[in-house]
Amino acid sequence: MSFLGKVLVGLQLVLSIMFLVFAGAVFSTQKNWKAAKEVVDGNLTKLIGEKDQIELEYKTYKTRMEIDFKNEQNRAATAEGQFVSEKQKSAIAENEANTARIERDEQRELAKVSVEESRQRREEALQQREINNNLQKLLNEKTTRLQASDDVVFNQKVAEKTLQDKHSKVLGDLALYLKIIAAAGLSTDPQSVVGLLEPAPAVDGKVLETKRGGRSGSDLVEISIGSDDGLREGHKLSVYRPQSGDKAAKFLGDIKLVYVTPDRSVGAVILRAKNGIIEREDNVTSKLGQ
């Protein structure tokens, strides 16, 4: 074998070893990424379940409070109606008592006219006094019932104030739950978490533009596919550079969609391959992680 042939055989052996090592590294990275994704998806599902349970408990409690509040309002309205009715009856009784007093005074004036008439008027006055006493008793009873109605109205107002305080507490608890959900990185809009619950459809696209993030920001990637292709916020896609001439295909990283329009989307880089720099015209796909 010539010297050139030996050199070519040695070069072939070295390249074979290099490709073997590269394939092992890519396989290990993909496997670790899938395991991490499964853990994150499990935690996300658990958090969403807890969020749904909290929202269900809140809706149930709110509905019960609203029903109790309406019942108490109806009771208060009924008591107030009774109060007005009793007050009207009391006014009628008081008018009757005033009328009786006037008639009694007239009878007394007439009694002075004649002794005979005085005796008759005396008997009538006694009778009228009895009527007055009965009317006074009736007035006292009406007053007592009116005071009882006032007590009922007051108690209903206290109950209404208690329900309002409970309602305010429920609203405060809801605001706290929403803050907890936001602190966990979740959205309270059901449509914004569709991409987290369902995998991205099988799609392919191109990188249109890239933007470097600041010190605390993520790198952003604009791609050529959007909601018309079935994508939603939260979907994860892979970026790669296809084979070109002697250069083999290269995995560049993963992105998570943060903004989606019908024909375009913007994703934040969540995983970057070693020495992987995403550029315009690179390919985007959802098929690598499926």
Structure description:
The chain is of the alpha+beta class. The chain folds into two domains: 1-188, Helix Hairpins; 190-290, Elongation Factor Tu (Ef-tu), domain 3. Helix content is 63%, strand content 14%. It is built from three helices and six strands; from the N terminus they run H-H-H-E-E-E-E-E-E. The protein has helices spanning 3-111, 115-183, 194-197, and strands at residues 204-211, 220-223, 236-241, 250-260, 265-272, 283-285. A six-stranded antiparallel β-barrel has the order 1-2-5-4-3-6. Helix 1 packs antiparallel against helix 2. The protein is rod-shaped and about 170 Å long. The two termini are 48 Å apart.
Proportion of β residues? 5-15%
Q: What ranges have pLDDT less than 50 throughout 5 or more consecutive residues? A: none
Largest sheet: 6 strands, antiparallel, barrel
* Helix content estimate: 55-70%
Computed CA radius of gyration, to the nearest angstrom: 44 Å
Q: What overall geometry do the principal axes of the alpha carbons give? A: rod-shaped
Structural class: alpha+beta
- Give the CATH class of the largest domain: Mainly Alpha
Distance between the ends:
48 Å
Taken in chain order, the helices and strands follow as HHHEEEEEE
Whole-number mean pLDDT:
82
* Count of alpha and pi helical runs: 3
The multimeric state of the shown protein is: single chain
CATH fold call of the largest domain: Helix Hairpins
Q: How many structural domains? A: 2
CATH 2nd-level architecture of the largest domain: Orthogonal Bundle
Widest sheet: strand ordering: 1-2-5-4-3-6
